[in-house]
Amino acid sequence: MIYYFRLPFKKISSLFLAFLLLPFYACTLSKRLDTKLASSSSNCSSSVLSGNITLPKEELELLRAYLTIDVQKGAESIKNILLHIKKVQDEGKPEWERNGNAYILHLSDGKARILEEYGTNAGKTTEFKLDLFAQAVEDWKTCVLTCEQKVLFLNSSIPQKHKELLRAYLSWDIQRSPAWIKELSEKIVEVKSGDLASWERPGNAFLLTVQPYSVLIVPDNAEDDKAQIDMDIFEQGLKDWQSCVLHP
Questions:
Q1: Which of 167, 203, 205, 230 has the CB geometry, 3.0–4.6 Å to 148, for a possible disulfide?
Q2: Strand positions, DSSP E, the chain
Q3: Do residues 153 and 147 lie in contact, with contact meaning Cβ atoms separated by under 8 Å?
């Protein structure tokens, strides 16, 4: 037996019209998202070396364009560049090079050199002092990264899983409260000095136990994922959080 279904003409027309307009709506949404992202990147770009009045405008614009186009908002890209700046600047690494979307970055001899690959200046290399370039990357990092990402950003001595748990703890249980940051800092001092043997703080999602040389973070719903973190590392993480949320 064959069944026939009859749809109202108006409903068929509406569905057909929606089908025809779908690409238009998708394109419009994409443009809005691109505009929003571009605006966000533009705001961060203007924050790079905003107080520098000695750098020529053309060179400043090149630095900002490099960060916007080649580094973007990737935390790993920013981290990688800062780590290699440190290796070249402080640890005696002879040189380092990074190929990007539109530029080639070369670090050596206390200098950062940016080679433009496209446009009217294709093939031109501009040289910056390495400490100035490092400051530009730091300015970019300050603007584009979230407070969670900034906690122990360059620290590689703690397992990534523990780092993520610490960031989650600060985000969920300490939040942006000056009073809670102050309380935690004070209790750490009391425990380290011996005035308190230990201190516990139940929170929204974690149980924190402060001990003289370490801090234990236990999630409420997954005790197996607990993390024991050295006190000096935890304190640095707390300082990173405080610096970001109270002095953005």
A1: 167
A2: 95-99, 103-108, 111-116, 125-129, 199-202, 206-210, 214-219, 227-230
A3: no
Neighbours of 118 (CB within 10 A): 11
Check: pTM over 0.90? Answer yes or no.
Answer: no
The single residue listed with the structure tokens 């998708």 is 26
How far are the Cα atoms of 82, 157, 231 from residue 91, in angstroms, in the given order? 13, 17, 27
**Token reading at 169:** 């703890």
And the tokens for 75? 């935390």
Tell me the DSSP string of 126-178. EEEEHHHHHHHHHHHHHHHS-HHHHTTTT--SS-HHHHHHHHHHIIIIITT-H
For the record, the structure tokens of 68 come out as 């916007």
Task: pLDDT band for 92, please (50, 70, 90 cuts).
Answer: confident
Q: Report the C-alpha gap between 63 and 41 in whole angstroms.
A: 13
The closest alpha carbon to 50, from 136, 137, 116, 125, belongs to 136
> Residue 142 in contact with residue 47, Cβ under 8 Å?
yes
pLDDT of residue 8: 54
**Rg (alpha carbons) of the chain, rounded to whole number:** 25
pLDDT for 194 equals: 97
State the Cα angle at 70 between 79 and 86, rounded to 5°. Answer: 30
Q: What is the rounded average pLDDT of the residues 204-211?
A: 96
